[in-house]
Design a protein that fits this description.
Elements (H helix, E strand, L loop, with lengths): L1 H14 L9 H40 L3 H46 L1
Keywords: Signal
Length: about 110
Protein backbone atom coordinates (compact mmCIF):
# COMPACT_ATOMS: atom_id res chain seq x y z
CA UNK A 1 0.00 0.00 0.00
CA UNK A 2 2.95 2.33 0.61
CA UNK A 3 3.91 2.07 -3.07
CA UNK A 4 0.37 2.95 -4.11
CA UNK A 5 0.42 6.06 -1.93
CA UNK A 6 3.82 7.01 -3.36
CA UNK A 7 2.45 6.60 -6.88
CA UNK A 8 -0.47 8.94 -6.14
CA UNK A 9 1.90 11.50 -4.61
CA UNK A 10 4.15 11.45 -7.67
CA UNK A 11 1.19 11.83 -10.02
CA UNK A 12 -0.38 14.68 -8.06
CA UNK A 13 2.82 16.70 -7.72
CA UNK A 14 3.96 16.28 -11.32
CA UNK A 15 0.67 16.59 -13.18
CA UNK A 16 0.37 20.37 -12.91
CA UNK A 17 3.90 21.22 -13.94
CA UNK A 18 4.54 18.65 -16.63
CA UNK A 19 6.05 19.84 -19.90
CA UNK A 20 6.78 17.91 -23.09
CA UNK A 21 10.51 18.08 -22.31
CA UNK A 22 9.90 15.94 -19.23
CA UNK A 23 8.48 12.99 -21.14
CA UNK A 24 11.36 10.82 -19.94
CA UNK A 25 9.90 11.02 -16.42
CA UNK A 26 6.84 9.17 -17.68
CA UNK A 27 8.83 5.94 -17.75
CA UNK A 28 9.27 6.06 -13.97
CA UNK A 29 5.63 6.96 -13.45
CA UNK A 30 4.53 4.07 -15.64
CA UNK A 31 6.69 1.71 -13.58
CA UNK A 32 5.09 3.09 -10.40
CA UNK A 33 1.65 2.61 -11.95
CA UNK A 34 2.47 -0.99 -12.80
CA UNK A 35 3.72 -1.66 -9.26
CA UNK A 36 0.59 -0.09 -7.74
CA UNK A 37 -1.67 -2.19 -9.95
CA UNK A 38 0.26 -5.35 -9.07
CA UNK A 39 -0.14 -4.63 -5.36
CA UNK A 40 -3.86 -4.04 -5.72
CA UNK A 41 -4.30 -7.32 -7.60
CA UNK A 42 -2.21 -9.20 -5.03
CA UNK A 43 -4.31 -7.67 -2.26
CA UNK A 44 -7.51 -8.81 -3.98
CA UNK A 45 -6.19 -12.35 -4.33
CA UNK A 46 -5.07 -12.39 -0.69
CA UNK A 47 -8.48 -11.12 0.47
CA UNK A 48 -10.20 -13.97 -1.36
CA UNK A 49 -7.85 -16.51 0.20
CA UNK A 50 -8.38 -15.01 3.66
CA UNK A 51 -12.14 -15.11 3.19
CA UNK A 52 -12.06 -18.75 2.07
CA UNK A 53 -9.85 -19.74 5.01
CA UNK A 54 -12.15 -17.94 7.45
CA UNK A 55 -15.20 -19.73 6.08
CA UNK A 56 -13.43 -23.11 6.35
CA UNK A 57 -12.46 -22.37 9.95
CA UNK A 58 -15.97 -21.28 10.90
CA UNK A 59 -17.47 -24.32 9.20
CA UNK A 60 -15.20 -26.59 11.22
CA UNK A 61 -16.02 -24.84 14.49
CA UNK A 62 -19.77 -24.83 13.86
CA UNK A 63 -19.69 -28.53 12.98
CA UNK A 64 -18.24 -29.33 16.41
CA UNK A 65 -19.97 -26.59 18.44
CA UNK A 66 -22.82 -27.03 20.87
CA UNK A 67 -25.14 -24.57 22.57
CA UNK A 68 -23.63 -21.18 23.35
CA UNK A 69 -20.55 -21.95 21.26
CA UNK A 70 -22.68 -21.55 18.15
CA UNK A 71 -23.60 -18.01 19.23
CA UNK A 72 -19.92 -17.12 19.71
CA UNK A 73 -19.04 -18.45 16.26
CA UNK A 74 -21.95 -16.54 14.73
CA UNK A 75 -20.70 -13.32 16.35
CA UNK A 76 -17.20 -13.95 14.98
CA UNK A 77 -18.61 -14.57 11.52
CA UNK A 78 -20.51 -11.27 11.68
CA UNK A 79 -17.33 -9.44 12.71
CA UNK A 80 -15.39 -11.03 9.87
CA UNK A 81 -18.09 -10.11 7.37
CA UNK A 82 -17.94 -6.49 8.52
CA UNK A 83 -14.14 -6.48 8.23
CA UNK A 84 -14.36 -7.78 4.65
CA UNK A 85 -16.94 -5.11 3.81
CA UNK A 86 -14.64 -2.43 5.21
CA UNK A 87 -11.78 -3.76 3.08
CA UNK A 88 -14.08 -3.65 0.08
CA UNK A 89 -14.96 0.00 0.66
CA UNK A 90 -11.27 0.86 1.06
CA UNK A 91 -10.48 -1.05 -2.11
CA UNK A 92 -13.15 0.83 -4.05
CA UNK A 93 -11.74 4.18 -2.88
CA UNK A 94 -8.23 3.11 -3.87
CA UNK A 95 -9.47 1.94 -7.28
CA UNK A 96 -11.12 5.32 -7.93
CA UNK A 97 -7.89 7.14 -7.04
CA UNK A 98 -5.81 4.80 -9.18
CA UNK A 99 -8.19 5.21 -12.09
CA UNK A 100 -7.98 9.01 -11.88
CA UNK A 101 -4.19 8.93 -11.64
CA UNK A 102 -4.01 6.50 -14.57
CA UNK A 103 -6.22 8.77 -16.68
CA UNK A 104 -4.01 11.74 -15.89
CA UNK A 105 -0.86 9.80 -16.73
CA UNK A 106 -2.29 8.55 -20.01
CA UNK A 107 -3.30 12.08 -21.00
CA UNK A 108 0.26 13.27 -20.39
CA UNK A 109 1.68 10.35 -22.38
CA UNK A 110 -0.64 11.26 -25.24
CA UNK A 111 0.57 14.87 -25.16
CA UNK A 112 4.19 13.67 -25.34
CA UNK A 113 3.42 11.58 -28.40
CA UNK A 114 1.95 14.51 -30.36
Amino acid sequence: MKTIATFFTVILFTSGSFAASNCAQLKEELKALQTAQQQIMLSLVNNHETFASSMEEYSSVVASAKGSSVNAVTAQMDESAQAFRTRGVQGKKMAVKLNAATGDLLARVASCLK
